[in-house]
Design a protein that fits this description.
Elements: H1 36-40, E1 56-57, H2 64-72, H3 115-118, H4 120-125, E2 133-140, H5 143-150, E3 167-174, E4 178-179, H6 180-186, H7 191-201, H8 208-211, E5 217-219, E6 225-230, E7 243-249, H9 252-255, H10 264-280, E8 284-290, H11 293-296, H12 299-311, H13 321-329, H14 341-346, E9 351-355, H15 360-368, E10 372-376, H16 389-397, H17 409-414
Parallel strand pairs: 1-5, 7-8, 7-9, 9-10
Antiparallel strand pairs: 2-3, 3-6, 4-5, 6-8
Helix pairs in contact: 12-13
Bound molecules: zinc ion (ZN).
Amino acid sequence: MNPAEAPTGHIRLTSHPGSRGPVRFPIDWNAGGNAGADGRGPVIATVNSGSHRNAIGAHGGSYSIYRALAISSGAMSASSKPDLHDTSPVCEIGPHPQWSEAGKIVSLDPWGHRVAQDFGSLIEEGIDIRPSIAITKARLTLPEIREAIAAGRMAVDGEIVHEAGDISVTKIAIDPVWWLPGVAERFEVSENSLRRCLFEQTGGMYPELVTRPDLSVFLPPIGGMTLYIMGDPAYLGDTSRMLTCRVHDECNGSDVFGSDICTCRPYLTHGIEEATRQAQAGGVGLIVYNRKEGRALGEVTKFLVYNARKRQPGGDQASTYFERTECVAGVQDARFQQLMPDVIHWLGIRRIDRFVSMSNMKHDALTEGGIEIGERVPIPDDMVPADASVEMEAKKAAGYFTPEAPPTAAELSKTVGRELGKF
Ligand SMILES: [Zn+2]
């Protein structure tokens, strides 16, 4: 049999509510009190789960497409199921009261890392329930941290920071799991119009968005996030321990390759340094890394914007920074911080003592979500690359947190970056 073919050989384009009788595993997303994982119910999104399937979309975020390629090419069987033996989390996260507080978490499955433990007997029975969160350990080796040690800003303690300058961390990967009524509420749109837009703007990729109003959970084909925790993860929801946190949105060009047009990597490594020092002082540090490349517009759009910025009359000026993005992308920013606080709630956090970010959008999203923020920690001026001052000054003028007065219009038009011919 061609591995791409369904066992029955025919393709069901879509399904309709009630066409297969009562659902065995309903999802009660807001099951409150002590309902636990059983009360909420397992999220079953595997496409070969038949009538047990109670979610739209597929596991793995954007990687679901690669799985399709693997099956299409015959490299993988469509009926393959993961062996979850020995894959359990290296530490406990939750359950926290926030997990069942209505509307607090709508874009990830709070029980996603506990699947093997909470639904073990169902998995043994053959029900294909998969984790959407995994928790492991790592060592980070960063030249900036070695420099911080050499400069005397950080010390080697042998437990969190080691002799060679590497840092012990716990890291958590999270795939997106959206509860559509809650996502619609965050964006202040109707669930119907959200479902319709998701259906239409993906070229009709998920017909169940419009044919199955009884299915409220959607696993979107987008990137998720990674968390890096310095110190004991059990301290995260403990308000007697100081927490330093940076929420960082992916910027491959700077984060990985050191491109100097923005402050992303310097701010990220500054955040790692601050978070690590907090852990060394008996508190805990947290880095949230969101896969939202180029303000969630993607690198192609981002590079087009760079060219448009550098080639405009008068050169790359802070005064026209946002305008140039909007001309190309149609929007200044598509990161939509409305969903970002979910992960903070998931970790049981109610207060961030030191927030290593200047973004007013991130700050406002967290405080509106009920998270208290103590000190806001800006990036030190000497860490901002020269060409990145265009972005930094434009953002300060647009409401970014800055201890000084924001730049004036005259100052903005004087902040000009490198020309294309000088790279
Ligand atoms: Zn960047």
